[in-house]
Structure of Glucosamine-6-phosphate deaminase:
Amino acid sequence: MNIIKVKDTEMGGKEAFKLMKADIENGAKVLGLATGSSPITLYNEMTSSDLDFSNMTSVNLDEYVGLKPDNEQSYHYFMKEHLFNKKPFKNSYVPDGSNPDAEAATKAYDKIIEENPIDLQILGIGRNGHIGFNEPGSPLDGTTRKVGLTESTIEANTRFFEDEKDVPRFAYSMGIGSIMKAKKIILLAYGEAKADAIAATVDGPVTEDCPASALQNHPDVTLIIDEAAASKLK
Ligand code: F6R
């Protein structure tokens, strides 16, 4: 794994954008995207750049089950607010959280991923090492699935909702196996709360206990992290 240490989230966004730009110049056409706070500075770099994404495709990692795309807490909405309204892509895919039929929704998404192989995947990481919504215990070779969110993830996400009881308990998430098929991966992590997860990802064994540790087996992963997130590395 390559590790780039940055001063703050602003610099992280700039470093990630540089790598993304080079990848696009080298022919990348499909970006795998994440929501959450970690990629926001990267999305700001994208929206303020002169890059044109209208010939490109984006495939997002996950969506809450039970939220319609126009729900302000949905990941569809987040992506429009932070990126797509300002920089439209030719096609932008996010799992259909409004489809209660998990089998149909996840199969449809796997087909989308198969038809649009991801050139560059952007990831954040949960405090417990989750990537996408693949919580500890998730199969390291999994495809898109309906997943239950752990208490720690629900607690971390409460900040986006009025009340903890409003936080959805399930999500549709790309599996770790699908994430691993991306040609290149950039993982962004900032702050002390991520230090244990980053240490387990880089220095720990490859184990379902820390889903991001699977990235040790990927040939092209770059971690962009600040000093606090790097503080427990060996
Ligand atoms: C979001 C996602 C999650 C987040 C992770 C970190 O699409 O897949 O794995 O990347 O929960 O979230 P932040 O960046 O808010 O700390």
Q: What stands out?
A: Residues 34-38, 61-62, 124-126, 130-133 surround fructose -6-phosphate (CB under 6 Å). The beta strands are 2-6, 30-33, 57-60, 62-64, 91-93, 120-123, 145-148, 170-173, 184-189, 221-226. Residues 9-25 form the longest helix (17 residues). DSSP finds eight helices and ten strands in the chain.
